Amino acid sequence: MKTTSNLGLMKPEGTDVVDIENFNTNADTLDTTIGAMSTVPTTAKNIAGAIKEIHTAMSNLDTTISDGEITTAKLADSAVTTIKLAANAVTGAKMANSTVTATQLADGAVTSAKLADSGVSAGTYKSVTVDGKGRVTAGSNPTTLSGYGITDAAPLASPALTGTPTAPTAAVGVNTTQIANTAFVRSEVGDRSNLLTTTKTNVVAAVNELFQSVGDGKTAIASAITGKGVQSTGSDTFAQLASKIGSIKVGISNWNDGAPLMRSTGGFPYYANVFLSGITDNDNIAAWYSSGSTTKDTDLLDESGNIKAVTDTAGSSSSVDMCTVGNYVFTLFYSEKKVIKRAADGTFPASTTYTVPGNPTSAFTDGDYLFFWAYMDTSAGYVLYKYNPVTMAQIWSSNKIPQGYVVDILPNGELISYVNDNKVYWSPSDGSSLNMVSTLGYNQRGGMAFRDRYTAFYLRRVYDLSSGTAIDKWPGVTPPWGNYDVNWAFRTKAGELIIGFGSVVYKVNWDTGAVIQKYSIPISNNPSARINRKTGTIAVMNSANYAFFVTRIYEGGYPSV
User: Fold this and answer.
1) Nearest to 394 by CA among 374, 379, 408
2) Which of 10, 345, 421, 545 lies 20 to 30 Å (CA to CA) from residue 49?
3) With left for phi above 0 and alpha for psi between -120 and 50, is residue 447 left, alpha or beta?
4) 205-217 pLDDT, tens per residue?
5) Within 13 Å, how many C-alpha atoms sit on residue 161's CB side?
6) How far is it, in rounded angstroms, from Cα 250 to Cα 229?
7) 3-state SS class at 265
8) Among 341-345, 422-426, 521-525, which stretch is predicted with the lowest mean pLDDT?
9) Which phi-psi region, left, alpha or beta, contains residue 520 (left: φ > 0; alpha: ψ -120 to 50)?
10) What is the per-residue pLDDT across 344-376, written as a single tens digit (0 to 9) for each?
11) Whole-angstrom Cα distance, residue 151 to residue 62?
């Protein structure tokens, strides 16, 4: 017996035996499959009517859903799934604007379980990207201002702040990397209006003004100290200026009562010819004598006239000259072409010998360097040399001229030389060119001093040499020494003209010949003198009655006339 393909109903064929139970079974199957029509939710309770009614309702779904028609009652739990919706089934065209609102969704209706993953990993983000529907499509955690897209904030490194930024005021005395605001600066620096300078609004300008004032004051003090015979400059420190003030020499209050420094004949040979050579910076007096035809002696005396040391310098030279530079004593030997240097200290008379070009003679100093003339054997003429007294290194040499005697060094370093043909030669400080500037008209070189290149005291008067010929600057003036030649003359550091004539020392005006001051010294009998241009000390000596007398005067502290 055959059966139907869907419900399995039995279909008897012509040869099949028909059993009533087969029909009953088919009836029960149909009844069970179709069910009770009275319970279907359609209006029609028969199959055909119900199907028609359902068909009509389904047809209406394709066109319009009435307001409020879809309710929770109409949807079974989990009824709406991705399987029920075709891809892109719900589009903007299918949904009216603002369709889904808070009133359309029951509380808790949409949960994380109901929503598909957005593609952004779960986590906490400081910066997110959101699409037009409010969905997070990307997330990040930036660490810089630019990462947040902030462009109007000052960077941590070298911020360029605008407006009036403020900061906490540090406590007075704080010395850290904390920001110093204007209140802190003012508390530390003080009120600028209380400055004693002319400038009160600018600290740098006030400091510069103070520095300039101090510099001007130091220069003025240095000038005054130099005027007292101790060379000083504005670049000296205050300690150096104080030390130099302490070294200013002050003359004896009454020269008539000033006893000479004296040493008896005990240290010198009988009938010795004694010559004063110079004064060291540490106030030792260098002298030498000749006794016989070959023996020469270099002596060092302290400021009381006592011999500190004696050295016998034997030689065949017929000419010896000496000079002091700083605290060194130099002895020149003409024939031997050598210079001996001794330090005026506890090592005296230890010496060092130097060979020099030519035959040295006529040594002198500007207080810092050793100068001497040297006769050159290879050709007639003399060359002037300048040496470093410490290292004895030659600094320069001049051109050759007839025999010269340097009688002065000007404050600017220029050199003035007198030669045997009664001419005056001038050279710049580098000795590069010795040129004749004037003819004196006298063939002597004693008692000579220069104020500048063209103003010279010579023998007894001051002359103007600017025309090339000596012109008397004191016409009609009779000086105290009359028409006699003076014994010695110096231009001091202060630019004064100091003249020695017998036992009287005069300070004289260069331009008028008027005596400014005068004083007596207990030395006469054709005295000679030497000056230390650094310390301003002048030593005057003579040798009489087989005794050696030395007295000292200074550029400062002269008594009035």
Assistant:
1) 374
2) 10
3) left
4) 878 877 778 888 8
5) 7
6) 10
7) helix
8) 521-525
9) beta
10) 887 888 889 999 999 998 898 988 899 999 988
11) 54
